[in-house]
Amino acid sequence: MLSYKNNFSVSDTINFNINLTKDEFPKISVNQSKDTVGNISFFNGIIADDYGVSKLDFIYSIDTSKKSEDIEITNDIEQIFYFQFDFDELDINENQEVKYYFEVWDNDAVNGNKKTKSEVYSYTKKSRKENIFEKELINKKIKNSLSTSMNQAKELRKKINNFNKDIIDKKKLSWEDKQKAKEILDKQNKILSEIENNKQNSRLQEKKQSKINSSNLEKQKQLKELMESVIDEELKKLLEEFEQLINEEDKEKLKELLEQLDSQNDNLEKELDRELELFKQLEFEQKTEEIINDLNKLKEKQKNLKEETDNKQAKTDDLAKEQELLEKEMEEIKKSLDELKKKNDELENKNQIPETKEEQEEISNLMKQSKNDLEKNKKKNSSKKQDDAIKKLEDLEQSLMSMQQSNSEEAQIENIETLREILENLITLSFNQEELISITQKTKTTNPDFVNLVRKQQKLQDDSKIIEDSLFALSKRVVKIKSRINKEITLIKDNMNYTTSFLEERKTNKASEKQQFVMTSTNNLALLLSEILKSMQMDLSSMPSSCKKPKNCNNPKNSNNPSMSEIKKAQKELNKKMKNGQKNGEKNKGNKKMSSKDLMQLAKKQGLIKSGLENLKNGENNSKDSKKIEEIKKQMEENEYDIINNKISNTTLERLDQIIDNFIDYEKAKKEEGEEEKRESFEWRIDDKNKSEEIDKIIKEKINQIELLNSNPINLKPYYKKEVSKYFNSIIKKKK
């Protein structure tokens, strides 16, 4: 109550009623969602206080250790917060528990800040066994998805072909035809959606695998990238164009798009097929690694148990129980080995698995006998059985490791040899096609020999089919072969089909155009495969060889390096061939140009000789001698440039003599130093099966050879033809 009196001596009274409200504790509510594969927890929640909050912490504890992370907030009375935490970053053991919660503080500066604690959550690190189980489930999803998408692409191709047949004689598209076209588009989009979903499974599988072991992660990463590149921009644009065209009346354009879509689905079907096979092989390799790790752990546990058994104070009952647990672990490994065999049976190219049934049973029996001896208090007998079990476990582990190494090395060698053969066949196809282009341009359609020309083109088409099949089979074993490779071979096939059709119709101009496209795709493909071959050989050279006597191994990475005298001899032979070729060219109506096939052989041999020189340089310790070898190597590179561009001149011939003089100077210097190496007598042969550089030279020579540069491109004026030639020559110089 408040009294008041003014200047007029009049008083008044005012009554006040005051309620005091106690400062409440801050409030917090939290929602949690988990990424079970990545072990990341995502949080969102609301915090509030009547006077605002001052602090929000995320607190987690491992055993007796407690840590916190400050979460950035404002001082608003009520606000939403977001937070995420990756439990994989914690250094904890399997089955170890982590407790965590949030704490929010108000801003009561008078009486002191008050805090409220959220609900307490817990996280337990999954065991290796749990991770493997979850990974197997993801693997199953990936395989099912790949198989489903592949079958859907196959069915869609049938629908496209049937639809094309239905509209071939129609002048206009009916409403039913447009509906069928929409169905095709819907089915295509459904396939793409399935593939996109499977990409997520592939990423999850990679994360899960990284928690188990990392030995195959590089290959898995390559396969994941392969899966993610299946759908390219070309297909997406094609579908957009197809969708726009459905409501139009351009039947011919629609037919053209349908053919392109059919070709795209052909590629898609093949790509999914190879990815499925590659994934199954990866799954086999990962399973093998898991079993080897399990055997190693079981072996170590058995060793520890043997030490305990040898300890006189240890109780036999406890030891018998431990032995029984190890026996059960061995039974699990036996099941895993059976699963490994099943996975191998699913593969088209099966791995060689050693027969280990007998060893498995011996280990199980020894463990069982050891347990029985312990139950009878016969520690000495039990220890002997345990020792035998350890040796058998080591043998089984070693057997699987040898299989793992041998399969990997032998497969790599076989794949390299196969790729070499494909490259050789591809280059032969390119030369034969080039020769046929020349014949096509010279042969009139009325000439009786024109029929033979068509037959030759059909023969090349058959040859390209063999290359296509061989390359596709190889792509199902080699993850390095990208999807673009199969697309290039499809372009070769399609243009071969067009070429044959145009020749049969006597449309030589169109046939020549398609023949040029075949050449372009062939050369592109050869370059791509050359890079892959080089990469595969590098991978092989870094592998630990399982061969005990390298000289007797059929292994491309094991080869004898030539001596300088042998390289000089090979260079002399090459010089002689180059000079003879130049003389023969001069006699042939004054034309100094050599045939592209002769140039290829010369460039190939020069490249191999240079490669031998590089190997010799790598083993040279004397910097002065290395400088001399480098000088010779540069001269050889200049030779290669002249050969590739068919510019063998008097300067080139003089350089050939200079190279031999430099060889002689090098040998003299070596003799003066008394360092001439006495080597075992053998003839060094230029072996194109033991090198990869020659493939590069052949391909570069093929792409840049003078016949292609000087051939008449379609609708190209002489001035522009000359500019194109300058452009390609400038590229060659830059590459030098």
Number of domains: 5
Number of helices: 18
Strand content: 5-15%
What's the total number of strands? Answer: 10
- Gap from first CA to last CA: 103 Å
Notes on the protein architecture:
- It contains 18 helices and 10 strands.
- The strands form 3 sheets. Strands 5, 6, 8, 9 and 10 form a 5-stranded antiparallel β-sheet that branches. A 3-stranded antiparallel β-sheet has the order 3-4-7, with no helix packed on it.
- The protein has 5 domains: 27-125, Immunoglobulin-like; 129-278, no CATH class; 288-409; 412-542, Lipoprotein, type 6 (Four Helix Bundle (Hemerythrin (Met), subunit A)), CATH 1.20.120.240; 563-676 and 685-735, no CATH class.
- The chain has 736 residues and is α+β, with helices and mostly antiparallel strands.
- Helix 3 (217-228) runs antiparallel to helix 5, helix 8 packs antiparallel against helix 9 (450-475) and helix 10 packs antiparallel against helix 11.
